[in-house]
């Protein structure tokens, strides 16, 4: 039976911080249960972690090869082969592979085979490693001075009028107002680089998360009849409710009106459309005299070419906010779209040798690993990669 204890142990194992005694306890459980029970339990925990074992790379690769002998393709019989996108499924097979590798790894460990495995030569990694992004951002104050938030110490950072700015122990930026809000607005801007992200609590208590290569411009205190901010890149909002002072987000020429809600705005300059996805509450998206109201689960897509607002329903909101939760999540995404996300998070340039192709990918991968791990999983679909310095060259 999948008890809380086993959930706790498998979670620690995937996270890589199991003690020797806990590994032994988990290994005994694996030996005493049938395969279907083990698979069900371990797959539940794999959804948040990448498996880590003590097996040599060539052993785990051989197991992966047995599990995934060929990449399945879906093609339409009614469409010419060259015009049909090929859908690559990454996640289900990697989950199954992780379960088997973890199970075998623990079984070998419990039999005392560590010495034999340690004696086998470990090959050099096929890909160079580039670490993932992290909490990196620059805060520009009203007087033009800047603070690098990733290197700044926790505690008080600055004061502007009646507003104090602090960096919490959790690494978030917090604005607090003492007394009445200043009548003259002083604007601050927080900017994340490629390979950066950050979390900020605005003066009204609204919480904002910035993805890589993004920015947020906001006043140090909200006053008057509305609260207004400007963004670039990708930003997730949890807006504090205040019916008397509606919240507005400006992304280029697109304006989003909010009362109190959770939503994500993706407004990168290198993407074809500005996408506003609503998780809770309601928002109104406007551009060039046109507008559309969104309900939870809907997404507004605005293109600069036509100023047209297209509303899609039944959107996978988990996918849209996956970046905030530490994942890449793809669903019928083409290779160029995926590599743009990788480029921003790992701060790399991506170039292609030949045509990227029309294949589409579906899967979910953690953003906490080095880029070589992500590329190795993508390469199971047949796409080839090589890393040269801070560049990734893709050979479809």
UniProtKB/TrEMBL annotation:
Is Electron transport found in the keyword set?
no
- What superkingdom does the record give? Bacteria
Q: Which residues cross the membrane?
A: 90-109
Please provide, alphabetically and separated by semicolons, the GO molecular function terms listed in this UniProt record.
sigma factor antagonist activity
Q: What keywords sit in the KW lines?
A: Membrane, Transmembrane, Transmembrane helix
Q: Looking at the Swiss-Prot or TrEMBL record, what is one Pfam family this protein matches?
A: FecR_C
Q: Where is the Protein FecR C-terminal domain?
A: 327-394
Please report the stretch or stretches of sequence annotated as the FecR protein domain. 189-284
Q: Which Gene3D superfamilies match?
A: 2.60.120.1440, 3.55.50.30
Under what name is this protein listed? Answer: DUF4974 domain-containing protein
Species in which this protein is naturally found: Dyadobacter flavalbus
């Amino acid at each position: 039976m999948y008890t809380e204890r086993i959930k706790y142990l498998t979670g620690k194992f995937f996270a890589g911080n199991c003690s020797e005694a806990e590994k032994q306890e988990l290994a005994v459980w694996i030996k005493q249960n049938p395969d279907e029970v083990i698979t069900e339990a371990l797959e539940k925990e794999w959804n948040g972690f990448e498996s880590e074992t003590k097996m040599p790379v060539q052993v785990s690769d051989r197991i992966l090869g047995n599990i995934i002998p060929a990449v399945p393709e879906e093609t339409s019989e009614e469409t010419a082969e060259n015009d049909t996108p090929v859908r690559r499924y990454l996640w289900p097979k990697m989950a199954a592979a992780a379960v088997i590798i973890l199970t075998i790894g623990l079984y070998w460990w419990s039999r005392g085979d560590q010495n034999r495995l340690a004696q086998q030569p470990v090959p050099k990694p096929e890909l160079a490693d580039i670490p993932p992004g992290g909490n990196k951002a620059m805060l520009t104050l009203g007087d033009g001075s800047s603070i690098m938030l990733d290197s700044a110490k926790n505690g008080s950072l600055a004061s502007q009028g009646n507003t104090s700015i602090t960096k919490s122990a959790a690494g978030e930026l917090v604005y607090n107002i003492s007394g009445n809000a200043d009548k003259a607005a002083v604007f601050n801007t927080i900017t994340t680089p490629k390979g950066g992200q950050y979390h900020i609590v605005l003066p009204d208590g609204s919480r904002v998360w910035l993805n890589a290569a993004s920015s947020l411009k906001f006043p140090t205190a909200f006053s008057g009849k509305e609260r207004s901010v400007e963004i670039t890149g990708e930003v997730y909002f949890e807006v504090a409710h205040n019916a008397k002072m509606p919240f507005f987000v400006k992304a280029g020429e697109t304006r989003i009106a909010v009362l109190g809600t959770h939503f994500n705005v993706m407004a990168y300059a290198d993407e074809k459309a500005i996408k506003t996805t609503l998780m809770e509450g309601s928002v109104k998206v406007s551009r060039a005299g046109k507008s559309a109201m969104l309900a939870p689960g809907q997404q507004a897509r605005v293109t600069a070419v036509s100023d047209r607002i297209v509303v899609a329903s039944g959107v996978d909101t988990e996918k849209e906010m996956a970046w905030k939760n530490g994942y890449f999540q793809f669903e019928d995404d083409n290779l160029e779209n995926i590599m743009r996300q990788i480029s921003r998070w790992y701060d790399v340039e991506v170039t292609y040798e030949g045509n990227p192709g029309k294949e589409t990918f579906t899967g979910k991968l953690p953003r906490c690993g080095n880029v070589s791990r992500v590329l190795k999983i993508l390469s199971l679909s047949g796409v080839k990669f090589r890393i040269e310095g801070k560049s990734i060259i893709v050979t479809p």
